[in-house]
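Hi everyone, sorry if this is the wrong subforum. Our group has a chain we'd like a structural model of before ordering constructs, and none of us has done structure prediction before. Sequence below.
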Amino acid sequence: MIFLHSSTASAICALDGVPDGMVGVPAGMAGVLAVEAAVEALAGLDEEELLPHPASTAALEIAARSIGNRLLVIVPPEWSGGRPSAIGSPGDVQGPRNPSAHGRPRPNPGSTRRRGGWHIGPVSEPPAPRLHPLVGGFGDAENYDRSRPRYGPETVAALIDSLGLGPGAPVLELGAGTGQLSIALVEGGLELTAVEPLAETRALLARAIGAGRVLEGVAEKIPLPDGSVDAVLAADSFHWFDHSRALPEMRRVLRPGGGVAILRQLPHFEQPWAEELGTRIAAARTSHPAFEQGGAAMALTEEEGFGPVREIVVTSTQVTDRGRLLAYIASFSWVALLPDPEREELLGRATELFERHDVGEFSHPVAHHIWVSRLL
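Answer:
Right subforum, don't worry. Here is the predicted structure as tokens:
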């Protein structure tokens, strides 16, 4: 977490960035003294005063430009062994732009300059986003594409209406898979950017909607600039995200008045074999975030900056058969990651169940749940 106070603005302004990404200290050590003064001021602040100050927005912009798009972090003393500290970008402190002006040599690589109870050293940045381990179960992109239900024009119409999207509105889909929603979005006349982290899945997505619409990336670090889209969508992928990092990123890329829609589709099987199949699948299922988290509505409600959450349910009818049902079960991430004997046993029992009930081609309803919230 970054704590800034108006008293740090002069310290941030005093920093002068350099191409190699180090924190620069201007000649005369004015920057060092300014940072030291800001740190000393922080030492006496209450916790409430350490929260972002109204002046912080401008200060952050200055800091980003000054130190290579990295932020100056002022750490309160209780976080650093009782001594306040100022932490800059990776690497050491750079001495004055003209080191000979004050006879102060630049530190050696790996060193950290300390002065009066504070230091400037490596920045503490959040770790690089990591995919949930179960995402590794989506390696068979062809089977996933073949077996997963699709969203249709009814869902896109509901999204356009609930999010107030006009023709050609720029929208972002995160965790787009092989295009289960993406294809319908493009056909619905929206200007789509689809982000997908898995290479094999992304290749099929690019084939379906065009490579120019597809980017590699994750929800926790969206590869788009601020305020670039009218809506952010996540279809059957939101439970894989780190919500604490993904939701602020969604806010960042949204334009004023934009919104988020989180979708999840649930096929309904009312055939005589459905209950037995569901029981077997539930018994074999490992720990899974889709069944453990509070859900999309709770996540959006708890996230600052979003308005009331509205749920919409769109129902469609889709056709499947025995082979596609087995492929659908096999496409579950946790099924793909089961040890071979356990996976084969689960799929074998499902096959026996379908044979016993003489399952052929049939139609069934699919409920497409949509949770929508707009920026305040």
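For your construct planning: The first strand starts at residue 73 and ends at 75. The CA atoms of residues 294 and 335 lie 23 Å apart.
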